[in-house]
Specification:
Radius of gyration: 24 Å
CATH architecture of the largest domain: 3-Layer(aba) Sandwich
Domain HTH lysR-type: 13-70
CATH superfamily of the largest domain: Periplasmic binding protein-like II
GO molecular function: DNA binding; DNA-binding transcription factor activity
CATH class of the largest domain: Alpha Beta
Helix content: 40-55%
Keywords: DNA-binding, Transcription, Transcription regulation
Number of domains: 3
InterPro entries: LysR-type_TF (IPR050389), LysR_HTH_N (IPR000847), LysR_subst-bd (IPR005119), WH-like_DNA-bd_sf (IPR036388), WH_DNA-bd_sf (IPR036390), YidZ_PBP2 (IPR037402)
Family: Belongs to the LysR transcriptional regulatory family.
Largest sheet: 5 strands, mixed
Order of helices and strands: HHHEEHEHEHEEEHEHEHEHEEH
Distance between the termini: 66 Å
């Protein structure tokens, strides 16, 4: 073997450097690695310099705004990542979590429009465990969610089902059918042609990006005219009730919950759009964390006791 690649004895290495290697390898960025590790970028650079000295190799080279692994780093990575994962699993199995005695604050990422239907029943489910269990919600962009989960700033997330890489775990919580909310004075049949020709309200937490129904329509080769955007379905339903002439597409059970007092009518969606799946996501590092496992179990219990897509606390 080339002398520059003679690997150092394990006993002469700071094992914390392997964790730095892992995060840089996964994130492909020193800046993001620093955020995950809760240290400064200069600390990550210093650790990387020590790794380079140990291995006699650059390990990571600049590429665009990030870094890419060298051939040696690619050879080292599988063994290092597997060993760290096994160590994390071993440590996780030694821990206990007693929700009635614990003092633990969880952060659950939720799109703003889902909070009214998910947060109240979840808080009701957790209330018997006492004041030591606290829950706060956040609304982080999907593009930033992986980093927030890896850094531990978010414990888990409930989002519309979508593909993820191997560092995130996911489990389906619910599937909801869609309906169309129309004002009380709406007359006649809601055909596909009438639906596509109408003006629509879209609900999204962010200024850009398509809603679930717009993406589903695009897959069918259709598009619609969105003239109003709202951040939550309560506001959107009020706009429908005020005679805007706009249609609102949303999950049926949520629609039934908030539109009955407003006098709006619910009609069947005249196009074959799929049911909207809601998944639970968490980072692989939290897979065996007892506290994370417990909260996942509480959410799954809510989902299993749900009726047609509405979360309901487990019966006492």
């Amino acid at each position: 073997m080339n002398k520059s690649h003679d690997l150092p004895a394990l006993g002469r290495m700071d094992l914390n450097l392997f964790r730095v290697f892992e995060v840089i390898y996964r994130e492909r960025s020193l800046t993001r690695a620093a955020a995950v590790l809760h240290v400064s970028q200069s600390a990550v650079s210093h650790a990387l310099a020590r790794l380079r000295t140990h291995f006699g190799d650059p390990l990571f080279q600049r590429e665009g705004r990030g870094v890419s692994p060298t051939a040696l780093a690619m050879r080292l990575a599988p063994g290092i990542l597997d060993s760290l994962a096994r160590l994390q699993q071993s440590l996780g199995q030694l821990q206990d979590f007693d929700p009635e005695q614990a003092q633990r604050s969880f952060t659950l990422n939720l799109p703003e429009q889902l909070e009214p239907t998910i947060l109240p029943p979840l808080l009701q489910q957790l209330r018997p465990y006492g004041p030591g269990i606290r829950l706060r919600t956040a609304s982080v962009r999907w593009s930033e969610l992986k980093l927030e989960l890896a850094a531990g700033r978010v414990d888990m997330a409930i989002e519309i089902a979508r593909p993820v890489d191997a560092t995130l775990r996911q489990l389906q919580l619910l599937e909801e059918s869609l309906c169309v909310v129309v004002p009380a004075e709406f007359e006649g049949e809601l055909t596909a042609h009438r639906y596509l020709a109408a003006e629509h309200i879209a609900v999204a937490s962010w200024r850009r990006g398509l809603s679930f129904e717009d993406l589903a329509l695009a897959r069918l080769g259709h598009s619609r005219q969105v003239v109003q955007r709202c951040q939550n379905y309560q506001a959107a339903s009020l706009v429908v009730a005020q005679g805007s002439g706009c249609l609102l597409t949303m999950a049926r059970q949520h629609a039934e919950l908030i539109n009955a007092p407003l006098g709006n009518r619910l009609m069947a969606l005249p196009l074959p759009l799929p049911r909207m799946g809601l998944n639970l996501y968490w980072h692989e590092d939290a897979e065996l964390d007892p506290a994370n496992q417990w909260l996942r179990g509480q959410l799954l219990g809510l989902a299993q006791n749900s009726s047609n897509g509405v979360l309901a606390p487990s019966p006492v």
